[in-house]
């Protein structure tokens, strides 16, 4: 199998993870993939849904699944590895998960299975504190599943309160590539920010910051235009020295010290 040893760069995949065979974490080496993770349409939709522009990128993962490997999961919601508590119904504190499908998904290529909240909310499954809900215990929920069989370019925007699962790859050959991402309100420190701490100072992070505009930088936590951080002249100058090809004029500094 061509991709049998192709695992990506994420630490989460190295220990063995049934959710994927390949996983790359944001920021990526390719500008086009970074642009997709912070696509203006997706971010604008999240702003409308949350009712605020005070959002940050929660996560960004490029994930591949391949025929011949096992990916069948139990129904679960995603809050347990993205939230220190449980997701509230109050949109004031919200984390919005998104899946962008980069390849066509048929019934044989492991479609995401989704159950409407009208079936799960009455059961108070979020509040029971259990991540996975298996078929033997909740057969009626599995009968209500909807399969995300979609063409490449499709997007599923759901909720941390939505139960779903990755299903089995039944095809003898083929693959499914998706980009997982999400946005959360900045007023909820219990929601997990994007885990790029180990990528600070990396070539990919520096490349992203220099390619991005001020708003795109702000989405991942860089001080925004007008932030009081920039009132410190030494900090402003130091940042310009750290990123000599960055245009610091939006932040109150000068043009690039080194031509781009």
Q: Would you give an account of this structure?
A:
The protein has about 260 residues and is α+β, with helices and mostly antiparallel strands. Helices cover about 20% and strands about 20% of the residues. It has helices at about 10-15, 30-35, 40-50, 115-120, 140, 205-210, 215-220, 235-240, and strands at about 20-25, 55-65, 75, 95-100, 110-115, 130-135, 145, 155, 165, 175-185. Strands 1-2-10-4-8 form a five-stranded antiparallel beta sheet. A three-stranded antiparallel beta sheet has the order 7-5-9. The longest helix has 11 residues, at about 40-50. The chain is globular and about 60 Å long. The protein starts with 10 loop residues before the first helix and ends in an 18-residue tail after the last helix.
Largest pleated sheet: 5 strands, antiparallel
Q: Span from first to last CA?
A: 42 Å
What is the beta-strand fraction? 15-25%
Order of helices and strands: HEHHEEEEHEHEEEEHHH
Ranges with pLDDT <50 over ≥5 residues? none
Structure at a glance:
By secondary structure, this protein is α+β, with helices and mostly antiparallel strands. It has helices at residues 11-14, 31-37, 40-50, 117-120, 139-142, 203-211, 214-219, 233-242, and strands at 22-25, 55-66, 75-76, 95-101, 112-115, 132-133, 146-147, 155-157, 163-166, 175-185.
